[in-house]
């Protein structure tokens, strides 16, 4: 399967600060990809680069075989819902649909109308008067109705209450199934994405820490605990993500492709949240930029 | 995109068109009366042979509305530049909606081109209509205007003919450009106003006089170019020159100086000077009870001319009005194109 998005050494600099650097990734088609990382990690920058809203400082990015925002044909293939789900506050819901229909040759008017009806939005209501959840739904509708092949959503649920959050993600998942979309959505909270995504990218400190299929990530990461021992004395195929040492005990989170054979460890599985936290922790502990590219797990099979 | 641009412009367009309709109605109602009064007055004064008095009276009578409509045409380009130009992009940047519209199936270049095209043309049309209406209405007044208020004079020139269209186009794109650089609406509006006002002052004072080489001439003194002439009982008579040149009605006088018989200027640049002529005897001597003051003044001025005192004037004759209008509009059109190119480059390169 050809990847829907490919980036090589992608970097973006604002002034003297790198918002994103050395980002080499491949995202296979047909996935719902969660992009997780703390605020300021470079999630928005990555999505804007993919949508073509920004031009990279270094490296390259290919989305669906083209350079982002390289002409109308490329724009038509990608839907982008920016952070805070911007809409024109003085335009009504119906105006937004009209705008979408006028600006997108591939606009699916039926889809847009049905979604608005189902959501119970009043077409005559000005977008400025909508609640955060309704606004996000309107922005998502705009993104879906242009019938893109890839939908990029930047923190779409950040401003929503838990109920609206669930409804939004539910609506998104239904659309993914119905229209065979690939989706990349970002959040600083894994819990927002955990149920929705089957592929994960962890981004901290402007670098990609880990990326891969959720199932595969869970299968290859383990928490080992046992009597205290020095780090660095693990088999070559086990990579330490984090290690904590108490007086007598060590707890190590490792990535290992094979099974853990050492009987002195008690091995337990990680939840996705543990895994993400481990990678975030690792970055905080080490304060280095060294491991960036090393741990990209490919989702290709 | 056209619909979206129109939808965003609608409110402002309604307000400006409303104001224009009121202006046009007021001018249409009063214009014919004004023209009739002028025609009547002209026929009357031509019979008497001297129309100066009629012109003075007629112009004085309508000076307030004359200045009012002139100021409206001068201000309108600034208004559209401020309220249509500056927020055009900053509104989108502030609300983040540029991210929404830039992801529709339309390139940013086309998005900006349509926005600039439609809104800019609307601003130009508004200024054009206002200028056309005011130029038509004030025709009789422009023909009878005092020096300083003729069509070539800076205050009036910018409110007649086609120049306001150029100003509107430029003020609009200036607002857009400043908005793009400042990225916030209110500071952008303030800065646009300051820059545009500075340019509108610099243009007539520094640039326009040099658009063509001005005419220089040395002429005799007479009622047209003398504003005040005081003959005191003792001391020297003082003369203040008018910014006008005999035989050059409606000319834009850049400088008007008083020359002594040797051809040296004797005023201090203001056109006012004392003439070293005796008032004790000779033509300018006060003759007790003899002759009318007017006759006395004429004799005295004739004597001053005979002695060789002259007015040295630099001016642009009234016939250059349309040449100046076209040149000036062209200059603003070039500035507008340059800024448009800058904006289009920005939207392609500098992204969110």
Automatic annotation (TrEMBL), chain A:
It comes from the Bacteria. InterPro entries: AAA+_ATPase, ABC_transporter-like_ATP-bd, ABC_Transporter_VariousFunc, P-loop_NTPase. SUPFAM superfamilies: P-loop containing nucleoside triphosphate hydrolases (SSF52540). It holds the Pfam family ABC_tran. Residues 5-230 form the ABC transporter domain. GO terms for molecular function: ATP binding; ATP hydrolysis activity. Keywords: ATP-binding, Nucleotide-binding, Transport. This is ABC transporter ATP-binding protein. The lineage of its organism: Bacteria, Bacillati, Actinomycetota, Actinomycetes, Streptosporangiales.
UniProtKB/TrEMBL annotation, chain B:
Keywords: Membrane, Transmembrane, Transmembrane helix. This is ABC transporter permease. The chain crosses the membrane at residues 65-90, 111-137, 157-181, 188-207, 329-347.
């Amino acid at each position: 399967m050809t990847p829907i998005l490919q980036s090589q050494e992608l970097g973006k600099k604002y002034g003297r600060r790198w918002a994103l650097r050395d980002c080499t990734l491949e995202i296979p088609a047909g996935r719902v990809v969660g992009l997780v990382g703390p605020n300021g990690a470079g999630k928005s920058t990555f999505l804007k680069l993919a949508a073509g809203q920004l031009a990279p400082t270094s490296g390259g990015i290919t989305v669906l075989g083209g350079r982002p925002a390289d002409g109308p044909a490329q724009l038509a293939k990608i839907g982008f819902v920016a952070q805070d789900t911007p809409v024109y506050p003085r335009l009504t819901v119906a105006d937004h649909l009209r705008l979408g229909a006028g600006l997108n040759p591939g606009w699916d008017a039926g889809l847009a109308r049905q979604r608005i009806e189902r959501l119970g939005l009043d077409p005559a209501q000005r977008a400025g008067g909508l609640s955060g959840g309704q606004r996000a739904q309107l922005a998502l509708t705009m993104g879906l109705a242009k019938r893109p092949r890839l939908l990029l959503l930047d923190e779409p649920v950040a401003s929503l209450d838990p109920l609206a959050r669930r409804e939004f993600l539910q609506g998104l998942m239904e659309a993914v199934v119905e229209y065979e979309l690939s989706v990349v959505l970002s959040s600083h909270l894994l819990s927002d994405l955990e149920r929705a995504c089957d592929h994960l990218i962890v981004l901290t400190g402007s670098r990609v820490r880990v990326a891969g299929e959720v199932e595969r990530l869970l299968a290859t990461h383990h928490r080992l605990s046992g009597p205290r021992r020095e780090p660095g004395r693990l088999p070559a195929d086990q990579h330490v993500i984090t290690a904590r040492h108490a007086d007598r005990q060590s707890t190590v989170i490792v990535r290992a492709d094979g099974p853990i054979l050492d009987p002195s460890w008690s091995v337990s599985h990680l939840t996705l949240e543990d895994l993400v936290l481990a990678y975030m922790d690792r970055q905080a502990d080490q304060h280095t930029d060294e491991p960036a590219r090393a741990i990209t797990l490919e989702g290709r099979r | 995109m056209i619909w979206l641009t129109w939808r965003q412009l609608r409110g402002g367009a309604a307000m400006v068109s409303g104001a224009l309709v009121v202006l046009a109605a007021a001018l249409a109602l009063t214009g014919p009366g004004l023209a009739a009064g002028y025609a009547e007055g002209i026929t009357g004064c031509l019979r008497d042979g001297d129309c100066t008095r009629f012109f003075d009276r007629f112009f004085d009578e309508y000076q307030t509305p004359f200045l009012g409509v002139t100021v409206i045409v001068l201000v309108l380009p600034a208004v559209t530049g401020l309220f249509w130009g500056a927020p055009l992009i900053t509104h989108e940047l502030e609300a983040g909606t540029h991210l929404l519209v830039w992801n529709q199936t339309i390139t940013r270049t086309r998005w900006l081109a349509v926005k600039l095209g439609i809104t800019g043309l609307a601003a130009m049309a508004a200024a054009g209509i206002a200028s056309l209406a005011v130029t038509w209405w004030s025709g009789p007044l422009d023909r009878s205007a005092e020096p300083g208020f003729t069509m070539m004079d800076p205050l009036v020139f910018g409110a007649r003919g086609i120049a306001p269209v150029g100003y509107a186009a430029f003020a609009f794109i200036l607002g857009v450009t400043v908005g793009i650089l400042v990225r916030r609406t209110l500071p952008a509006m303030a800065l646009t106003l300051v820059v545009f006002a500075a340019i509108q002052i610099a243009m007539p004072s520094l640039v326009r006089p040099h658009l063509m080489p001005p005419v220089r001439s040395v002429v005799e003194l007479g009622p047209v170019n003398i504003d005040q002439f005081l003959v005191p009982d003792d001391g020297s008579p003082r003369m203040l020159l008018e910014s006008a040149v005999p035989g050059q009605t409606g000319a834009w006088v850049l400088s008007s100086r008083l020359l002594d018989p040797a051809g040296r200027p004797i005023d201090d640049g203001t056109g006012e000077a004392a003439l070293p002529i005796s008032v004790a005897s000779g033509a300018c001597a006060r003759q007790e009870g003899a002759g009318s003051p007017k006759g006395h003044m004429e004799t005295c001025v004739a004597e001053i001319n005979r002695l060789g005192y002259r007015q040295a004037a630099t001016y642009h004759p009234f016939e250059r009005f349309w040449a100046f209008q076209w040149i000036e509009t062209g200059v603003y059109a070039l500035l507008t194109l340059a800024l448009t190119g800058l904006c289009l480059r920005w939207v392609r390169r500098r992204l969110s």
